[in-house]
Design brief:
Largest sheet of chain A: 5 strands, parallel
Oligomer: heterodimer
Distance between the termini of chain B: 16 Å
Bound molecules: flavin-adenine dinucleotide, FE2/S2 (inorganic) cluster
Strand order of the largest sheet of chain B: 1-9-8-4-3-2
Radius of gyration of chain B: 13 Å
Strand order of the largest sheet of chain A: 3-2-1-7-19
CATH class of the largest domain in chain A: Alpha Beta
Number of helices of chain B: 1
Radius of gyration of chain A: 22 Å
Number of domains of chain A: 3
Structural class of chain A: alpha/beta
CATH superfamily of chain B: Rieske [2Fe-2S] iron-sulphur domain
Strand content of chain B: 35-45%
CATH topology of chain B: Rieske Iron-sulfur Protein
Distance between the termini of chain A: 39 Å
């Protein structure tokens, strides 16, 4: 297959698109490679709710790659260019300015957009979302000491924004109708513990839905139980909408994301999709979840490149993501919702701890707070379907690195479906 | 090259483990991570990941690479090359030797570019 592929266009310069380009080149592809992004420069998103939001500065801080890399890799980088259409029947793209770029393969790495819930006033001038660098710069300008900030949604982004805003001196009110946001990813108990961190740091945490947001010209009135409350700014952390329009308009299969097979190929053989907008069809034919995490987009990119180059697919590995709040580094591998039993190593509290999810004798997931080695050891054990001894896992005196290097029990490779994303 | 610094007896750093040597001891701009690969070989790199702030001595060491404990960038133990995102910059490498059962570090004192 690789023999005929001489022109590849990648649409979207986020972690998925940039990683696709890198994987194609390191896999030996030497044909034309064009990366198109509607933004100013390919950058990394995770810092937008963390370091970038809390600091000053622009692109150099969060550039995915230095400028020279694109030249070194012979990538034609077209920034400030929006792809307006996929040409049906062929793998070419039409730019918003009318130009057409011909290709043998197109990789859609278009990410997604912050969703705005159907709350009246959710599109008001003091209501923010956080997906792009411009969103972050705009939000940053309205945060500061004494600012009354309402954060709607206590998922990953809402929680991180809350934590950063508190560091900046804001008075934050966090509302979510769910008592345990993230339970799907980390399990009920840890979701409860994570959510409690907000109140423990003095945040107002309300368990309800916002009825309306009304801009007064200087502030926003939020409709909450018992009346309205006044805020200086509002952030919506209420989910992500996959950018699937190009695929949809071109008649590709789209259902809650761009449907891809295990090699990232869409319903059109010349078009692949990676990262946040891609929704996998599992080997048994069911549709999986969109991963919506940073590393998952990289793995998609590796698979897409392998498919295009006709190379063997990389080994499957349990999904992993991290999130930071209040100076604590939280990592999750696998899905705690898949676990029948949870084994703690250390108690959930101020010090480092980890929790492992077990199904029968096997470890299927882990969550670690300030304990990176626990999660790395767990990931290796999960990937090789190892049977583990609960007592050893729970014992803080046991070095998990050594445990994870014990002899392996070979089995088939079953991907663990992922829960809960960065939209929320 | 500065004079060699004695770090520890070999058995103090197990396979797959690292030890951070403070810059007050090494005289270098950054602390130095002495890292022992799972095959028993010793390597030394600057301790602070080139992405954000994390100690590579606390990383996962395996197969000629160290994985950063924060966002999992990997560096080559032998060359210091950044092998994957989010790190894009190589990390400085230092010489390390084993003499009579002791680990000795020879820090690279060249000015930071
Ligand atoms: C604030 C925030 C914090 C996060 N923190 C973490 C974290 O701590 N850990 C973690 O694991 N994950 C985190 N994530 C999730 C992670 O960033 C995403 O999963 C990842 O960015 C997905 O990469 P992607 O390449 O699929 O999409 P994106 O990063 O969204 O990139 C898509 C790119 O495509 C471009 N594009 C779209 N349509 C077009 C078009 N028609 N023409 C041209 N260009 C187009 C867009 O401009 C964009 O640059 C976070 C996300 C956000 C928003
Ligand atoms: S600090 Fe090392 S990868 Fe981010």
């Amino acid at each position: 297959m690789s023999g005929q592929v001489r022109r590849i266009v990648v649409v979207g310069g986020g972690i998925g698109g940039v990683s696709t380009c890198a994987a194609l080149r390191s896999g030996g592809y030497d044909g034309a490679l064009t990366l198109i992004d509607e933004g100013e420069y390919p950058y990394d998103r995770p810092p937008l709710s963390k370091r970038f939001l809390g600091a000053s500065g622009g692109f150099p801080l969060i550039a995915l790659r230095p400028d020279a890399w694109y030249d070194d890799q012979r990538i034609t980088l077209l920034t400030n260019s929006r792809v307006a259409g996929l040409l049906p029947g062929e793998a070419s793209v039409r730019l918003a300015d009318g130009g057409v770029i011909g290709a043998d393969r197109v990789v859609l790495a278009t990410g997604g957009r912050a969703a705005r819930p159907p709350i009246p006033g959710a599109d008001g001038p003091r209501v923010h979302v956080l997906r792009t660098v411009n969103d972050a710069i705009r939000l940053r300008a309205s945060l500061g000491p004494g600012v009354r900030l309402l954060v709607v949604g206590a998922g990953l982004i809402g929680a991180e924004v809350t934590s950063t805003a508190v560091e900046l001196g804001c008075e934050v009110c966090l509302v979510d109708p769910d008592a345990r946001p993230l339970a799907g990813a980390v399990g009920d108990r840890l979701a409860g513990w994570l959510h409690d961190q907000h109140a423990a740091r003095g945040m107002t945490v309300l368990r309800e839905a916002v009825a309306y947001l009304r801009d007064t010209g200087r502030t926003v009135l939020a409709g909450l139980t018992g009346g309205s409350r006044e805020f200086d700014a509002v952030v919506l952390g209420t989910g992500m909408t996959p950018a699937a329009e190009l695929a949809e308009t071109a008649g590709l299969e789209v259902s809650g994301g761009i449907i891809v097979d295990q090699g990232q190929v869409t319903s059109s053989p010349a078009v692949l999709a990676v990262g946040d907008p891609a929704r996998p069809r599992l080997p048994d034919g069911r549709l999986g979840r969109r991963a919506e995490h940073w590393e998952a987009a990289q793995h998609d990119a590796l698979r897409a490149a392998a498919t295009i180059l006709g190379a063997p697919q990389p080994a499957a590995t349990a999904p992993w993501f991290w999130t930071d709040r209040y100076g604590r580094h939280v990592e999750v591998v696998g899905s705690m919702a898949d676990a029948g039993e949870i084994v703690f190593r250390g108690a959930a509290g101020d010090g480092p701890f980890a929790a492992f999810g077990l199904r029968g004798p096997q470890i299927v997931s882990a969550v670690a707070v300030d304990q990176p080695l626990a999660v790395r050891a767990a990931r290796r054990l999960i990937d090789r379907h190892a049977e583990v001894d609960r007592g050893l896992l729970a014992d803080p005196a046991v070095d998990l690195r050594r445990l994870s290097r014990r002899p392996r029990i070979p089995q088939d490779e079953t991907a663990v479906p992922q829960e809960s994303g960065w939209g929320s | 090259m500065s004079p060699a610094i004695r770090v520890a007896p070999v058995e103090d750093i197990a396979e797959g483990e690292g030890l951070k040597v403070d810059r007050s001891v090494t005289g270098t701009a950054d602390h130095i991570a002495v890292l022992r690969d799972d095959d028993g070989e010793f390597y030394a790199l600057d301790d602070t990941c080139t992405h954000e702030e994390a100690s590579l001595a606390e990383g996962w060491i395996e197969n000629g690479q160290v994985e950063c404990p924060l966002h999992a960038a990997r560096f080559c133990l032998r060359t210091g090359a950044a092998l994957c995102l989010p790190a894009t910059r190589h990390i400085r490498r230092h010489q390390v030797e084993v003499r009579d059962g002791e680990i000795w570090l020879l820090p690279d004192m060249a000015p930071v570019p």
